[in-house]
Amino acid sequence: MNTFEIIRFALRGIAVNKLRSSLTMLGILIGVAAVILLVAVGNGSAKQISDRISALGTNTLTVMSTSRNATGSSGLTLKIADALDDPVLAPDVKSVSPVVSTSTTIAYGSTSHDVSSFVGTTPSYFTASNTPVQTGSAFSADDNSQGRRVVVIGQTVAEDLFAGEDPVGQQVTVGGALFTVVGVLAEKSESTGQSDANDVAIAPIIAVRQVLTGYGALSSILVEAANSGMVATVQSEVATILDQRMTAATSSTSSTSTPYRIRSASQLLETQTETADTFTTLLGAVAAISLLVGGIGITNIMLVTVTERTREIGIRKALGAPRRVILTQFMIEATLLSFLGGALGVAAALIGAHFTIAGVKPLVVPSSVALALGVSVVIGMFFGGLPAARAARLRPIDALRYE
Amino acid sequence: MHPVLDVRSVTKVYGEGDTTVHALRGVSVTVARGEYVAIMGSSGSGKSTLMNILGCLDIPSAGRYLLDSVDVSRLTDRQLALVRNRLIGFVFQSFNLIPRTSALANVELPLAYAGVHAKERRRRAMRALETVGLADRHDHEPNQLSGGQQQRVAVARALVTEPALLLADEPTGNLDSHSTDDVLTVFDELRAAGRTIVLITHEPEVGARADRLIKLFDGQIESDVRQEAVGRHAVGAR
């Protein structure tokens, strides 16, 4: 009896027990699809978080002062900001943007709006912080050095003050001084840790210091690296310069630690990715359990059919079927069922991955496909093949009498 | 000419210790080619045990069993499968057809294991079904056939490989009188065609149609007589 005949026997064996075959395949299908989809959702949410963070700009560093009373000589100054833009000591720095920030009220005609973050900075801030201008334009370096009172406002501010009107060219009152709106920022997706990324206004630092914040310390300095791979290098370059400048200024007050803090977006990214990884692991564990439950389901249905199949094996043996032929037939049946179920499960998962699940776009991980398929197929083959192997070893009369 | 079947002081013991059951206590019998033998005995006389040993479905505890001059007890699993396939056709009391499989496919099964090609297999299976008068039902599944028809399919399956020996374990035990007659008629025809048949029964009228009647009691042969078959179908009357 050749292999081709045995395969035909196996196919007939699957076909005559349609309900049992489809139930077995369904069990495998659900197990496989659940694992792939859950891992894909975990992976998708991790990707989403890292996308959001990279939208903030991964190649920037933020230098902040650690002393609370950020006034006088201990804080960050424009001089320090200028010192950072040093092609010799810090060759990998692309731009330096000193930042002062405060919350204030902007008024236009009779309407007013409390802006949570009124930023005074230099034009390089727009590219460094990844906040492009949508309509109008950003202010220029000339606007800054001349101390012109111009402002670029965020979407929230624009909607609040200029409902239906074009804000560009209008005059608004900020802290008793008139500012001309020259541009509106592009809508920013809500980023992590901030209430509303669109509730901002950005103006030249000289004008802001004149009108609002005074000439105290800077809130922070935004340093942009030449590329994201240079962030670590830039961080050490910046630290070297700051160590020179700031220890000189604050010789005796706090020598125990540095008077500044450098935070990079990539550090934030790392933390967030770790969180997302934990999430993926958790979902993976849930998936593993569902695979286990699915596996038990497969085991169950395979074992339940043993009585009937054992009798059948007894009949086949009595008719002169060699053990090898019986084993091969039943192993092919189990393998086909497992593979068909597994393949359908993969197909179901891949189709399911096209839909957004719980606000997350699933991202299929190839290794999870291999793992889910592998485990299910092994379980199916083992528990489908093992009882058949045992029954094939019995004497025909014992197999026929099996209850 | 050597006998088809030669059983020499075969015993069969089930269990051990206090629960030991001696199903066969030394049975010796020979059956020549072309004989139609009926084995009778009450329940527990060991007739089914003897039949399973004759059919190579079970092995004896002691004694020798030669089938067509081959000592069956020395064969490997593989060779036993070959013997069951080529030398023996077995008919069970409970039919034992493969469920949800057509009559034709059931009859083809032994030929498939013998390695016969699909076309030849089909031709021979159809001829066997014609012999039992069920050629027109070849595409019916077992649950679409009556008990008698199922048993005739089982007989067709047993004789399709043209075995040296046709064994039937209470073939009419589950059948009504009409179906019993159908099946026995098939046996009569096979007897007339020169086949060797050994069947087990507890019904005297079934035993009466055989050439030779062996009575078993408590695991031993009580009587072994040749008889003039009665009530045999016209074909078999010669």
From TrEMBL, chain A:
Membrane topology recorded in Swiss-Prot or TrEMBL: Multi-pass membrane protein
InterPro entries in the cross-refs: ABC3_permease_C (IPR003838), MacB_PCD (IPR025857), Macrolide_Exporter_MacB (IPR050250)
Membrane-spanning intervals of the chain: 21-42, 282-304, 325-351, 363-386
Ranges for domain MacB-like periplasmic core: 21-240
Cytoplasm in keyword set: no
Keywords, sorted A to Z: Cell membrane, Membrane, Transmembrane, Transmembrane helix
Domain ABC3 transporter permease C-terminal: 285-394
Main location: membrane
Compartments, record wording: Cell membrane
Protein family: Belongs to the ABC-4 integral membrane protein family.
Protein name: Peptide ABC transporter permease
Organism: Paractinoplanes durhamensis
UniProtKB/TrEMBL annotation, chain B:
Keywords in alphabetical order: ATP-binding, Nucleotide-binding, Transport
Domain ABC transporter: 5-237
Keyword Cell membrane: no
SMART domains listed in its UniProt record: AAA
Pfam families hit by this protein: ABC_tran
UniProt-listed PROSITE patterns: ABC_TRANSPORTER_1, ABC_TRANSPORTER_2
Domain of life: Bacteria
GO molecular function terms attached to this record: ATP binding
CDD domains registered for this protein in UniProt: ABC_MJ0796_LolCDE_FtsE
Name the UniProt record assigns to this protein: Macrolide ABC transporter ATP-binding protein
Species assigned in the record: Paractinoplanes durhamensis
Taxonomic lineage from the root: Bacteria, Bacillati, Actinomycetota, Actinomycetes, Micromonosporales
